Amino acid sequence: MPILQKLINAYKLWQDFVPHFPKKSRYTLGGKIDALFLEAAESVYTAGYMSKEEKSVYIQKAIGKFDLLKFFLQIAWETKALDNARYEALSEPLNELGRMLGGWSKQAQTTKTKLPPRAEE
């Protein structure tokens, strides 16, 4: 699943940056960012194995976690816990992931709306 692989690669990049995170923020803000990466990956993984009818719910959950992840990364950058170069290095794959998740969501909703109507009993 390409979305999951890109998310894992972004997480690996994040893991390279964690040792450079200030100690005062490493276990609070850094921990939150780490947890959101994992929760987003879990939702993407789960969505990949759901039926067409259930897939959209997990994709939306992944998008929510992903949006929170980007929000907390921005806070880390604004508080100087994450420098410009590292923030930019993470932003590039995350922007691509956002586009991929959005496309997957639209595809899942289109598939959901194209289901044939139920036969009346």
Largest sheet: none
- Count of separate structural domains: 1
Q: Please give the alpha-carbon distance between the first and last residues.
A: 39 Å
What's the CATH topology label?
de novo design (two linked rop proteins)
Number of strands: 0
- Per CATH, the class reads Mainly Alpha
User: Beta-strand percentage?
Assistant: under 5%
Number of helical segments? Answer: 5
| CATH superfamily placement | 23S rRNA-intervening sequence
The stretches of 5 or more residues where confidence is low (pLDDT under 50) are none
Rg over alpha carbons: 17 Å
Element order, helices and strands?
Answer: HHHHH
Summarize the structure.
The protein has 121 residues and is mainly α. The protein is 80% helix and 0% strand.
